[in-house]
Amino acid sequence: MTDRAAELAAEYTRIRPRLVGVAYSLVGTLAEAQDVVSDCWLRLTAADAHDPVRDVEAWSVVAVARRAVDVLRSARVQREEYVGPWLPEPLVGVAADPAEKVTLDDTVSFALMVVLETLTPAERTAWVLHEVFGMPFPEIAVVVGRSPAAVRQLAVRARAHVAAGAPRVDVETAEHRRAVDAFVRAVGQGDLRGLVAVLDPDVLLTTDGGGMLGVARRPVLGADRVGRFLVGVRRKMAAGERIAPLTVNGGPGFAVLTGNATRFVCAFTLHDGMVKRVDFVVAPAKLPRELEV
């Protein structure tokens, strides 16, 4: 390996978590995000061989974002035909390998990732790159192929959609921790009264089963219905299965495990000490096979 090749590889490894974060925020699945970043490594080496890239990080962020937008536009057609709700792939806990960690702002909760799915690819790109990764509008314009003024308008529209659709997330406090503990404890015990006490009256629950039989394909709305759904989930757990609290996209959640094998992952969002949203990811393709929890 030449000195230049080694230098390029070291720099790309350093910025890889940020690049995966950009791609994941746009496409919503870690596997696709990693494919995008790997593909752009090949593009970087080819471009650098022709004309040395001076700012590897800036070049790579734009390249990854452009490729991720292409993937997102292609995926939109498939997601419209998806059986039941489509949820992003959950980022569970913290990766053991620093190179596999995803760099995301603390504000990019799982609930926010769900809301981003309602934006057009251009709006999502403008919001993510500007609000999360601090990219200026002229650079975003290169990614989406529009003028900086048009990109600014995209970001304004996206910000309004996000503000209207994403529940505000509680800052980590003692009250927040008590609510999280109470929710997980009530789920684990199948305690309907305890669940209803911590659920917002208008709580929404969605389940992404990827077409699996026996998985709810419509959202569940309201504290009583969501509480009964969760109690039903607890009752259906087989002997040897356990509930393991963990973080999902940096927020509260839990997984149901058989040994270390993952059956499903649940993310939930709190506001004012109440659970405002519950999201179950059951689709095997979106779950880590095993978790050390």
From TrEMBL:
Gene3D superfamilies from the UniProt entry: 1.10.1740.10, 3.10.450.50, Winged helix-like DNA-binding domain superfamily/Winged helix DNA-binding domain
Protein family (similarity comment): Belongs to the sigma-70 factor family. ECF subfamily.
SUPFAM superfamilies: NTF2-like (SSF54427), Sigma2 domain of RNA polymerase sigma factors (SSF88946), Sigma3 and sigma4 domains of RNA polymerase sigma factors (SSF88659)
Residue ranges constituting the RNA polymerase sigma-70 region domain according to the UniProt record: 12-76
Sorted UniProt keywords: Sigma factor, Transcription, Transcription regulation
Record carries keyword Cell membrane: no
InterPro entries assigned: ECF_Sigma-70_Domain, NTF2-like_dom_sf, RNA_pol_sigma70_r2, RNA_pol_sigma70_r4_t2, RNA_pol_sigma_r2, RNA_pol_sigma_r3/r4-like, WH-like_DNA-bd_sf
Biological classification of the source: Bacteria, Bacillati, Actinomycetota, Actinomycetes, Pseudonocardiales
GO molecular function, one term: sigma factor activity
Highest taxon of the lineage: Bacteria
PANTHER family hit by this protein: ECF RNA POLYMERASE SIGMA FACTOR SIGI-RELATED, SIGMA 19 FACTOR
Protein name from the UniProt record: RNA polymerase sigma-70 factor (ECF subfamily)
